[in-house]
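Researcher: Go.
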Amino acid sequence: MGKMRLAWSAKVFLVAILPVLLAAAVFFLTELRHVREVTIERLESDLRASVVTYAQLLSKRELESGSLQGNVAKVAETIGNRITIIAGDGTVLADSDVTNVAEMENHANRPEVVAAREQGVAMRRRYSRTLKRELLYVASSIPDHEAVVRVAQDFTEIEDELAASTHYLWWAATV
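Model: Structure:
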């Protein structure tokens, strides 16, 4: 048997398709980075708005009441994120994901809590030792009080959303 040779039309097709494939790859990589940035920016903006609004709505009476844990749980269920209220001394007053907050360690030195006290609102992405997973935290000082309210988003949910976007971009690049 002789060597298998490509027909002239097949060679032309291969030469013509290579720039298209290269352009699709460049488009995909550029768009993937853009989608990731936009998704994270949107999430950060939503979390910031949620935490600032909730901090403004909390009254001193609510912070000192025995119903704070129930209030935090209801609000967390509504917005779909973990919420923690931290006193000025770092004691956790309420947490939507932990029923016995008395057993939680002091949060006075958590980076987002320290920064929120200094700047009013702060955002950090870090590993939660309590929940044992990576979270995006947004914290806000509570007006007229030393306490801080913190909202957290599980970063695996963000990665899942980004994976879905990547899937659609693969299809777009393929087409």
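Model: The mean pLDDT is 85.
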